[in-house]
Structure formats: structure tokens, C-alpha cells
Design brief:
This protein has 345 residues and is of the alpha/beta class. The protein is built from ten helices and 17 strands. The relative contact order is 0.12.
């Protein structure tokens, strides 16, 4: 049996470069395994680099960046940003994995991250990193300090790839790092195991979200979009500006337990309550006349630290908890009206 199986590979493929994938890669590498860490985005860090502060009031990006740099500096870890798994074949202990690496159109070995390319790019589009609340250029770096710390060209929006009408980034690049002829590359790696550390995706679709106005009313946003707005690293540099008109929002409603009864999502995320606490405290600390209402069905505090934060929120007279079922949200006289089982606000 062992002769047929052959020699098992002493390497591991991790799919997903968020904080979970990074920590797993570091632990495996420190145990002597060769690790290939793949992420489809052109940078590592996952959702943590988009968040401002954790429930415990720690800087999120400060927590994940040392992990990224530790993984980058570990000789047993190979980082593969902008890569996707196309095929897995073989048996446990002897997998062959075909990986496709997307072109960056920027030579990582030459780029000095001066920023002249995106400063001079004439194309502006919505920023995926800021969840549509900010903008970026057709050549861009998702956030300052990203790893790799080099920009990437968005082929779909770049004028060079549309009609060859612009090469501004190549003209201003002092290092000659722009490579319009770059192309996707495939690589086959042999590993003994494949681990999926794909992390989370936001639930932003469905009948419940639509009733609450997400995607229909400009000033109804997701919890991650709220986080980008209150973050000093976000598109508004920490100012809680309404997407509809840019005015500061002083009355904020946070709705929890959305689509709680959906059989496709039977388990609590264990995240939303803590995020609501931290967001409410941030808003209250930014503006002395701000008021935050948290609408909820259940509240789940996981551990002593969360309970302590919850009690801090409860003691804040400008933050109110309302236990009710929110039925819908409607635009009314320049504001968003929240309609719930106990009335409306």
C-alpha cells in the first residue's frame, strides 16, 4: 500500500490569505513544512485590513500587518498574490495543484512604490477596497502598505487596453516597472495537503436586505461600509459622511439580526454585535451630539472582553438599544425612516 502511494509531499497549500490563512501558514512553516499561500486578491490580509478597530479597540491593520510581514520573511512560505486554484488532482499526501497567477502589469522587482503612476492616471473608478464608497485609479494599490507594496493595473478600465490611447503610467515611471505585455501564468505545484482558509463574505443580498434598503437607498450601508467611513484610513478620513450628500450623519441606526430566520444562514456570525458596539462607541466619540440606536433581536457577547465593551456601550446615554424586529427602511425628507414592530424612527 505504501509503495503504491509513493513518497508523501512535505508541503501544504493554503487557499486564502486573510489573518487565518497567514497564521496557519506561519504555524506550519515554523513546524518545518513548505507552505504555498494563495489569495485571489493582489494583496494579503483579507477583511482585517479593511476594518478599523476590533471589538476590543485594537487597531485591526496593526494586528494583521506583522503577520503579513512575518509570512513574507519566512523562507518556508511562498506568497502567491493574485492567484487562483484552477485544478486539484491526486490523493492525500500527493496532490498536484494547477494555479493561475493573474498579470499585475507592474514588475514587482523594479517598482519603487513612488505613486507617480496612479497620481497621473486619468481614469477614476469606484474602489472595491472601500466597498464602493471611495475611488481609485485604473492603476492602483488597494491600501497604503499593502503586500506586495506595488500597484496593479485594472485591465478592464485601463485606457491602454481599451484603445491604446494612454501610456501615462509608463511615461512617468522612473523605474521602468510598467509591463503592458504581462500575461497570466500557470504553475503546477506538488503538495501533501490543501487547506481552505477562505474567511468570510458579507451577506448583502436577499429579500430581507432589499426590504431594509441595502442597494436601494444610498444612506443604507453594510457594517463593513460603516467601518470604512469611521476609519481614519478610509475614503472620508474618518468623517461619517452620508453617501447621498456628503453631510455628517449625527443620527445613526444599526440594525442587527438581519435575515436571522433564513434557513440558508442558521448560525449566528458571532461578529455583528461586537462590531455594532465598537462602531457605536466610535461614532459617539467623534461627535458630541451624535446619537446611535442599535435595533436587535438577540445580543451575543462572546467572552469577558465583549461583555465589558457591551457594558460600556450600555452606560453611554447617547447609545440606545431597542429590542424589536425591523420591518423596512424608507427614504423620507432627506433621511432614512426605520419602520419596526414597535413603531418607526
Amino acid at each position: 500500500m505504501e509503495e503504491k502511494m509513493g513518497v508523501k509531499e512535505g508541503s501544504v497549500l493554503l487557499v486564502g490569505g486573510g489573518i487565518g490563512g497567514l497564521q496557519a501558514a506561519i504555524d506550519l512553516a515554523n513546524s518545518g513544512f513548505k507552505v504555498f499561500l494563495v489569495d485571489e486578491k493582489p494583496y494579503f490580509g483579507g477583511k482585517m485590513v479593511q476594518l478599523y478597530r476590533t471589538v476590543e479597540d485594537l487597531c485591526s491593520i496593526c494586528a494583521v500587518t506583522p503577520k503579513i510581514l512575518e509570512a513574507k520573511g519566512n523562507p518556508n512560505i511562498v506568497l502567491l498574490p493574485g492567484a487562483t486554484v484552477k485544478e486539484v488532482s491526486g490523493v492525500p499526501g500527493q496532490f498536484e495543484v494547477r494555479i493561475e497567477k493573474a498579470p499585475r502589469y507592474v514588475d514587482v522587482s523594479k517598482c519603487i512604490s513612488c505613486g507617480l503612476c496612479w497620481m497621473n492616471c486619468p481614469v477614476t473608478v469606484k474602489s472595491e477596497f472601500n466597498l464602493g464608497l471611495g475611488s481609485r485609479k485604473a492603476i492602483y494599490m488597494a491600501y497604503a502598505g499593502a503586500v506586495p507594496n506595488t500597484p496593479v493595473i485594472d485591465r478592464e478600465n485601463c485606457l491602454y487596453f481599451k484603445d491604446r490611447s494612454c501610456e501615462k503610467c509608463a511615461e512617468v515611471c522612473p523605474a521602468g516597472a510598467i509591463n503592458f505585455s504581462d500575461s497570466a501564468k500557470e504553475e503546477v505545484i506538488k503538495v501533501g495537503a490543501v487547506l481552505l482558509t477562505a474567511g468570510l463574505e458579507l451577506y448583502q443580498e436577499g429579500e430581507e436586505a432589499e426590504k431594509l434598503g441595502l442597494g436601494r437607498i444610498k444612506d443604507v450601508i453594510s457594517n463593513f461600509q460603516l467601518d470604512r467611513l469611521i476609519s481614519i484610513y478610509g475614503p472620508t478620513v474618518g468623517e461619517l459622511k452620508r453617501p447621498s450628500d456628503g453631510k455628517i450623519a449625527k443620527e445613526v441606526a444599526i440594525i442587527l439580526c438581519v435575515d436571522q430566520k433564513n434557513p440558508d444562514y442558521p448560525v449566528c456570525s458571532t461578529y455583528c454585535c461586537g462590531h455594532a458596539y465598537r462602531a457605536a462607541l466610535e461614532i459617539a466619540s467623534k461627535y458630541e451630539d451624535a446619537r446611535v440606536t442599535i435595533y436587535h433581536d438577540d445580543l451575543c457577547n462572546y467572552g469577558y472582553l465583549w461583555e465589558r465593551v457591551y457594558r460600556t456601550v450600555k452606560d453611554n446615554e447617547r447609545i440606545e438599544f431597542v429590542k424589536t424586529k425591523v420591518l423596512s427602511c424608507e427614504q423620507a425628507q432627506g433621511k432614512v425612516k426605520v419602520i419596526h414592530e414597535g413603531g418607526e424612527a
